[in-house]
Amino acid sequence: MTEIPTTEPAVVSAEEEAAFAVMSADAVLTGRVMMTGQAVSSAEFWAGLLAAALVDTAGSPRKLPADMWPEQDPVVVQEIWDRAAVVVSRAAQFAASPWLHRDRLQGLQERLAEAGFHAMAGSVQRSLRLVVSGHPADSEIGREH
Q1: pLDDT digits over 46-99, tens only?
Q2: Range of the domain at 96
Q3: Does residue 73 lie in a domain region?
Q4: I want to staple 121 with a disulfide (CB 3.0 to 4.6 A). Which of 27, 50, 72, 113 is the partner?
């Protein structure tokens, strides 16, 4: 007959608890990055196809703004288009390596919240949590690597 061993609560040191917290955070963050990477990959795929379709149906990239809004003032449309191009370029930089822009993104999120743009601030905050959330090892003090 097999006996089931009884276990007593293990005494865990603070160092072991810290190591477990780091390991757990690694597992969670790895999962988030994998899921985010898949979503970003899918979104980038569709964005590329949509961009190609826009040019294909307009005939030329230079004709895109006027093609999309033919009944609007062409000067205003071009100004909006130019501003959107700058925003998309900056968003692509953030998306390519958000962990390198963490401080900048946090500062922008705070500025949006202070200005009362709470929905936009919340959106930035969610993006930050998905890909650049803190890791217990980032706050270790007194450990040399």
Answers
A1: 777 778 888 888 888 888 888 888 999 999 999 998 998 898 888 888 888 887
A2: 14-134
A3: yes
A4: 113
